[in-house]
Write a structure and sequence with these properties.
Radius of gyration: 21 Å
Structural class: alpha/beta
Distance between the termini: 12 Å
Shape: globular
Number of helices: 14
Strand content: 15-25%
Amino acid sequence: MKKVLYIGNHLKGGNPTTSNQLSLVLKELEIEVASYSNKKNKIFRLLHMCWGLLKHRKASIVLIDTYSTLNFYYALIVSQLARLFYISYIPILHGGNLPKRLQEHPRLSRLIFSNATINIAPSKYLKEVFLSYNFKTEFIANGIDLQRYSFKKRKQLAPKLLWVRAFDQIYNPFMAIAVLEALKKTYPKAQLCMVGPDKDGSLQQAKALARLKKLTNNIEFTGYLTKEEWLQKAKNFDIFINTTTIDNTPVSVIEAMALGLPVVSTNVGGIPYLIVHEETGLLVESKNVEQMVAKILYLLDNESVGQQLTINARAMISKFDLETVKQSWKKILS
């Protein structure tokens, strides 16, 4: 049996992460997986990752989740330790801001990505960027189990907006509140539901903003919800909005498409590689509240447009099904 060491975020509790999901996919391929780290403390997590590599240095290959923030340095240290012990490794590129890392830290980036067996990009956006730097890169999507997502055909759209993301400045939750405020001028009973845990204090700021704008009767902050809870909640809403300023290939947007929610998103990072404007969703400029409101009003006034967008989107995301992802990883690891 092939043995894989998987370095990434393997914290217990909460919704399954892409790391958890991939670990299950690999086990279904009859691959033994050792996962590091489940430590919350950043220093302990790094030490645990290094210990895991030393303990499993006879593994066939090391998979390394690679982000653009502090975790970039986890990937740097672990990858160079793997090189020291002549262990092949594959970075899995998650950070929507990784292109900026490539620009600002070219030497460190080359140490990680030039010496990898291959780099795996879960978005065609990152694949294209990494290939432009001559880093050998293949695309494998972050998979979802499409059977879990019931497609709801919405015949008549109502001004009921759903936003699902961690509360973080880069995801710009405040734009969603501004969109609701503007939408209320046409639809006084417009509703917004914001689902997600707090990451940097933005949740409390968003709640304060909602109070300031007198929107508390029109907005619901659920905090963290399990996958099952938010999928059930989504049935009560008609339009999914994504307000991020930096992005890769957000799973929440893919899930919204699977559920039959028409998506209106900012046109940043990997989003235009996921959403084809006016074919599988609608795109607006980053931070442009007026454009997003206009697109929402367009959907509300043209129900056939929303229906066609959702049908196209559901067909497009078939490539994100777990079975397709499983076969792609089987090919890479063979």
